[in-house]
Amino acid sequence: MPIKLYNTLTRKKEVFKPIKKGHVGIYSCGPTVYWYQHIGNLRTYVSNDIVKRVFLYNGYKVKHVINVTDVGHLTSDADTGEDKMERAAKKEGKKASEIADYYFKVFKEDLEKLNIIEPDKWPKASEHINEQIGLIKDLEKKGYTYKTSDGIYFDTSKLDDYGKLAKLNVKELRAGKRVKFGEKKNKTDFALWKFSDEPGLRQQEWKSPWGLGFPGWHVECSAMSSKYLGKQFDVHTGGQEHIPVHHTNEIAQSESAFGKKPWVNYWIHFAWLLFKGEKVSKSKGGLYTLSQLEEKNYAALSFRYLCLTTHYGKPLNFSIEILSSAMKSYLRLKNIISEIKKSKDKKNKKNIETAKKQFLDIINNDFNTSNGLSFLWEILRDNKLNDAEKYELSLDFDKVFGLDLDKEEKIEISRDVKKLVAEREKARKQKDWKTADELRKKINKAGYIIDDTEKGVKVKKK
Ligand code: AMP
Ligand code: ZN
């Protein structure tokens, strides 16, 4: 069954056709590791994971690369401002590499908690300086670059189709000459290599044919994706804000250097996580990290469930209330699955095939997890299917959802509730049924139910 996906490049939903049959190469813009990745960032990686899992579910061999930006990402998209890594290192009084290692480690732990499959490669910008210099040299040879007092720039006026991804009105943009853009020839030109202001001021700087300095942010993605996926590949993903600048510039420099058009066949862009209607961003404090949600007793996978309830292309307005409701549905789902798991019903192959086909149709329609989850709930309510069939289907769909639907829930019980459970046990031993009953009510009120089994008391979340 074909996979249909919305391609930003054409603004159309298209049928996916791989460059090499049965294979797909995916490059995803990764984290800038100068701080924790907040739940907004993490929504993007859940979306990446869904795209990848759908390809895997369809039997594709996937090669996935996520870069790690540990140098060159400036505070302003206009090639000015501070390097985010250098600024954090200064602030924390540490080496830039220590900062990068620490936040990358935490990020990877978060991905694991969210059941996000690791990419095949995690290339770091600082470890691919030669590749980036090589790419700039290529562009220089082909006449696309020029030098200013602060770096080597890409001359976007050399391209007829600059800005095609974002459908930029380049003429209008360039006509706005009143806006100052320093020594750049065109407003849309961008830095490929930036010179160090003074040797030794920065922690991260390298020698290059043009002088001591560091690479621009966009050049890392072109250099590293081509190294690992080839000079033309299938899918490139990232957050929506990358369309007008970062991805536009990646395309300009890659198509000019590699001579392949289009450089990437399909561009997928993920919508943001919002809070009170605004994009959650690091510069505004990032709202929550995953660990902060866990401290509030929300399971990491309930955040994943929440992400899956909204199509990746639509904004998701976050609130604690909406997360609580996602957590309730998620735990209910797991409870149902742990109950139907024991079923010894005889399965009807045809019922299973039909439902799987329907699911594939839903999920292959632009990775629609929101409809996919609704379909799972429909299946669980369907009287025409028996429990064994429902169980098999749930586990099959979970290859895409990645919600650990089959795993017994390890629930974190707060200390207060643990105390109430112990007191109730004591009352029961003393045959003080009235107190035991009162304590049970208190436990229920705190959001838990208790089950007195032969093996002892079991505590579950409501
Ligand atoms: P950064 O570490 O800032 O470079 O961002 C890493 C990834 O997170 C990028 O692909 C961004 O597009 C994405 N991102 C940043 N903020 C949000 C948000 N509020 N919602 C979804 N994705 C985001
Ligand atoms: Zn990128």
Could you characterize what this model shows?
- This protein folds into 3 domains: 4-270, HUPs (Rossmann fold, 3-Layer(aba) Sandwich), CATH 3.40.50; 275-401, Isoleucyl-tRNA Synthetase, Domain 1 (Orthogonal Bundle); 415-461.
- Helix content is 44%, strand content 15%.
- The protein contains 15 helices and 15 strands.
- It has helices at residues 39-57, 84-92, 96-113, 129-141, 170-175, 217-229, 243-258, 290-295, 300-308, 320-340, 349-363, 369-381, 387-401, 415-429, 433-445, and strands at residues 4-7, 12-15, 23-28, 61-66, 145-147, 151-154, 190-195, 213-215, 233-239, 264-270, 273-275, 278-279, 316-318, 448-453, 456-461.
- The strands form 5 sheets. The chain has a 4-stranded parallel sheet with strand order 4-3-9-10, sandwiched between helices. It has a 4-stranded antiparallel sheet with strand order 5-6-7-8.
- Strand 5 and strand 6 form a beta hairpin.
- The radius of gyration is 26 Å and the shape is globular.
- The mean pLDDT is 93.
- The structure holds adenosine monophosphate and zinc ion.
Terminal residue distance:
39 Å
- In CATH, the architecture of the largest domain is 3-Layer(aba) Sandwich
The ordered H/E elements are EEEHEHHHEEHEEHEHEEEHHEHHHHHHEE
Strand content: 15-25%
CATH class of the largest domain: Alpha Beta
Radius of gyration: 26 Å
- When the domains are counted, the total is 3
User: What is bound: which ligands?
Assistant: adenosine monophosphate, zinc ion
* Major beta sheet summary: 4 strands, parallel
Helix amount, in percent?
Answer: 40-55%
| Low-pLDDT residue intervals, each spanning 5 or more residues | none
Task: Note the total helix count.
Answer: 15
Q: What is the number of strand segments?
A: 15
Q: How are the strands ordered across the major sheet?
A: 4-3-9-10
**What number is the mean pLDDT?**
93
At CATH level 3, the topology of the largest domain is Rossmann fold
The coarse overall form would be: globular
What class would the helix/strand composition place it in?
Answer: alpha/beta
The CATH homologous superfamily name of the largest domain equals HUPs
